[in-house]
Amino acid sequence: MCMQRTSAGFGYADVENEVACRPSTVMRVASLSKPLTAFAVAKLWEDGKLDLDKSIKDYVPEFPEKTYDGKQVRENGCHRREACCAILDSND
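Given the sequence above, the corresponding structure tokens read:
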């Protein structure tokens, strides 16, 4: 079986000037990665494959040392550690 690779661009790279997207057009993902990451973390936690209170280095040993306090998965999933962790802790 022979598989053919195709690519195309859809929509506009620049709506105002009606510049069409091409396969090589780079698009910004903006804040889309945050909810996708949160969903993946929640699913892994739900399946028992991720402990929110373990160090990130337990899962990714090459993760660089940071100078800020808090390296647990639970804490790094939050923009504002205190608010997010209070919500997560209330569900324990």
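The helical segments are 33-46, 56-59, 73-76, 81-90. Try to locate this feature in the token string yourself.
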